[in-house]
Amino acid sequence: MRIERIELRVLRLPLVRFFETSFGRISERTFVLVTVEDDGAVGIGECVADESPYYSAETTTTAWHIISEFIGPLVLGRTFTHPAEIFPALDVIRGHNMAKAAVEMAAWDLFARQQALPLASVLGGCRSSIESGASIGIQDSLEQLAERVQVELAAGYRRIKIKIKPGWDVDAVEMVRTRLSGVPLMVDANGAYRLSDVDHLRSLDAFHLLMIEQPLDYDDIRDHAKLQAQMNTSICLDESIHSLRNAEDAIALDACRIINIKPGRVGGHRQAIALHDLALRCDIPVWHGGMLESGIGRAHNIHLSTLPNFRLPGDIAASRRYYAPDLIDPEIVLCPDGTITVPTAAGIGVNLVEERVEAATVGRFQKRI
Ligand code: OSB
Ligand code: MG
Q1: pLDDT tens, 346-356?
Q2: Could you tell me the distance, in angstroms and rounded to a whole number, from the CA of residue 294 to the centre of ligand 1?
Q3: CB count in 10 Å sphere of residue 334
Q4: pTM of the complete model beyond 0.90
Q5: Ligand 2 centre and the CA of 257: distance in Å?
Q6: Concatenated DSSP letters for 237-265?
């Protein structure tokens, strides 16, 4: 595989519905789409960095800068025998995992298409469908939240995750539990609490949640260990895990019992597989997170989720929960049993609808050797 051309586009797409986390509400997404080409074959990756540096330090603009000025020159014109060689080839660049992942994942798609294999089999996957969960943002009222939960359960989603923050937590969980007692339920705080909130967080133990995701700061491991020692509910880390090394630290310190994997956060498919394997060795279940991706990133996530240690439903939902229409055809749909069927065509198995991509494009960059 020789990368002869790299193209970046910035796309802006409206969300079907606003999405609110502890760090704010958004109604559209602006993101970078990466295409790599070798001898007429193309691969596509989606950068999960957001417009604002709230979930992580990276943004759409930093990703554009790092890919065009640094990653592009390191991969363009180079021959790789396997896409797993890309992440190590970028080692000189510190951080910027989302920028690295977008290019690396495009290369995995290209490689799988050249081999005429679905990406899942190149990644080492072992199933033909994945279990899907719905992530529900902070709403304007508990009534509105109740309605959202009902809609997602009726669609078939196998577990519900609600976003929490101080002032929108125990009441929201209690409402869902009272109305729908048996629902597999979890919460995600996106780092909105401090260890000093331990007594308040412990009150969530009464609701038998599957887990609490990232209650404390985005770069913290030590305080999560102290919190886990005082809570029955399992802690799952998201933001805090961006390398194998800090996953090892978190596991060694018992800072979490579950890990959320997002390839963008750890530098791409190779690092996501390594994290998955590490967790498997340590008997830590993992599940696949989501970053409100369009169909391209969503399809990559589906293929990665076919690995054996993805033991819990992921934040990988149908296209129509986010974008109508999505950039891809066919769109990703939820089966009535709450699963998504893994595409079987070569690569990620979905294709862009050029007119939709063109209409959403607000910037572009291209370089050939
Ligand atoms: O923390 O998992 C998160 C969305 C954007 C940024 C961070 C997160 C999320 C979600 C949504 O929870 C998951 C999805 O459905 O894509
Ligand atoms: Mg999260």
Answers
A1: 999 999 999 99
A2: 12
A3: 22
A4: yes
A5: 15
A6: ESTT--SHHHHHHHHHTT--SEEEE-HHH
